[in-house]
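Homework help thread (please don't just give me the answer)

Our assignment gives two proteins as sequence + structure token strings and asks us to describe the second one. The first is just a warm-up. Here they are:
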Amino acid sequence: MPITRYSRYEGTLDDLDMGELMRMLQDRLLESGFGRDPFDPDPDARPTLEDLYQAIAEALVSNDLIDEQTLSEALDAENWMDSELGRMVRELAQRLEREGFLRPGEGEEPGMGEGGVAGTGDPGRSTFELTDKAIDFLGYRTLKDVLGASGSSTVGAHDTDRRTTGVETTGETKPYSFGDVLNLDVGETFKNAARRGFEQGRLQLEEADLMVAQSEYHSSCATVVMLDCSHSMILYGEDRFTPAKRVALALAHMIRTQYRGDSIRFVLFHDSAEEVPLNRLALSQVGPYHTNTAEGLRLAQKLLARQRKDMKQIVMITDGKPSAITLPGGRIYKNAYGLDPLVLGETLREVGACRRHGIQVNTFMLAREPELIAFVQRVSAMTRGKAYFTTPATIGRYVLQDFQSRRTKLVN
């Protein structure tokens, strides 16, 4: 299996490796909106080049990559972007684009200049996007940080309790059945024949004597990750959305490199729900939203219905109770106070639909209110899924290790 390795480079600013710069920027890039007001009238606003320039400058300062004189000149300048530090930041942004980590945002108006993301346009209005290379890098870094030395599962598949005949054996044998790979366990086969004794000095081998070695059956899995991006995910002095995005990126990287037969899709749920591509997930933000869990589950089921996999599951990361549903006419009904019976009933109907379609729902709850615990336990019981009550600091380890250790039963 090909392995992607990212190495750390130590040297002067002019020779700074862009992978190392991305490492310095990863926490800032994954923030839930660069500190944007979640009640901003434009909830779909994306980080701008000005945000990127500030993030690069902060990284240079915090990693002692610029001298005090350069920093002092920037602080004294009327516009720090006109200083030597500003020039360095623009050049580094250009290098990030040239090396394939960034690209101008879609639909950008002309005027960004020949330098691409670091051109002559208004940095306060121009936006940027992370490329697949950047997403892969951030996923790799997060996966490495989260799992550390905890080990990994069998490369390329999910273990199950089903056994089949093949080349990679488990040490277990079974009587041969028509259609099995003829991977004979010679010793056990001859033992069966020897129990009947010799005839004219020879063993008489019959079909019933044949024993074949078993190997583990590896299944494929279709996963939809549902991320709650309601306003509560950044309330109470704690950013819960950024750790959730980091986990999603790490999970995507692990599936791409270790579970090649799997698929993964991402759904953001709030007042409604929508699928987001991986390259847009990293820069997605929390908004002034409620929690329409039912709509998220409905969309996740549609995505999973298109997948032909042995296993189908929904990984739901949330911190609050359902507080909104979509009515038949398309209007959004909202009630943020307590578990509204109408909202709860519609949500549980979608959970029941998941059960009927054989979809397991594993819920990772970032809050511990008694009514939320009861709701999550009910969801898990209905779909035979799992419920984890965790924190932003530990959610990554729970999600990734659960994905690796998952088992399923397939009946012949």
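The one we have to describe:
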Amino acid sequence: MSDRYLRTGIFLAPFHALDENPTLALERDMELLQHLDRLNYHEAWIGEHHSGGFEIIASPEMFIAAAAERTRHIRLGTGVVSLPYHNPFMLASRMTQLDHMTRGRAMFGVGPGALVHDAAKIGIKASEQRDRMNEALDVIVELMAGKSVTRKTDWFDLTAAQLQLPSYSQPGMEMAVACARSPVGAVASGRHGIGMLSIGGTSDDALKAHANNWKIYTDHARQAGKTADRSKWRIVTFAHVAETREKAREDVTFGLERYTRYFTDVATFPILPPGITDPVDFLTREGIACIGTPDDCIRHFERLWQGSDGGFGAVLLLANNWADWPATLRSYELMARFVHPHFQRTANALRQTSYDIATSNRGTYSAQSQAAVEGEIAKYAAKSKRAAE
């Protein structure tokens, strides 16, 4: 990917502290998408969770339908729908409707389900989730290609199932599979030639795992006769920026401790090992997060690019509410203004070239301008003199 254009967006679980008004928290999530739409972020992926208290969007499709009415440009994906929780025919039908309602701005992200206690509440064992995801995904891909599907498993039974609407998006609705350290997501997405969402951190070890999963993706894509397209690969990371590093560190004291406690107490994997006394130092030192200035963020994204071993299509920020609302909005704005252009074909390069040409020739141009003005003054004086005579 020598012609580097890195799309930008967020991965919105969302994460909200237990003492906040949940209705207002959901409204703030909606306002965040409107803010990002105005700032020209390309994508927002909205999660599905049903327990644990922090991640409070249960239906990303419902949220996307509302967000599509409040935004103009940003694309909106399920990030992700947990396939084992849904009948694949009904889910494919709902997502096709959403494709039409959003006029093609919706994207279909899928996964096995991140919270084991979600699955347990409906009688699904953790050991079953990934097999069920693959069974459902195989059916959904066929259905969304307009095919009729008859298939029976131990958890769904389809008889000549066929969608009644074609995709609005052409040639079809964009899809992606979540992929952490396990190769399951890479195999599934590669086999179908759809996108891959790399989650699970951006430490050096995590980046190596992501790059290895992309190799697994390309191998399985090739075996299935699909083309591996790096623009379909998205990497999720953390970033909060401010005008100074000191301000950024101060900002995240608002919510970082509650966030990391949730990952230790409830979520599948903690983001801090035991005994860490300075979480900001650990997260930044290990490359898990950028907490600093826009220049620091440029270096952080550049590291992700290099760690991908060939480039990828989009960087997604895991929305986290580490900072209060005004500082959070400011962070996204600073990144849009000063970080994104660096990774979008160096968007300001032609402006800089134009500026440099103008400044390097200023003496010549100024002399020409001054001579032209003096010439006009002389001509006017001569004309006035002749009129007076």
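TA reply:
I won't write it for you, but here's a hint about the kind of observation we're looking for: The domain at 7-349 is CATH 3.20.20.30 (TIM Barrel).
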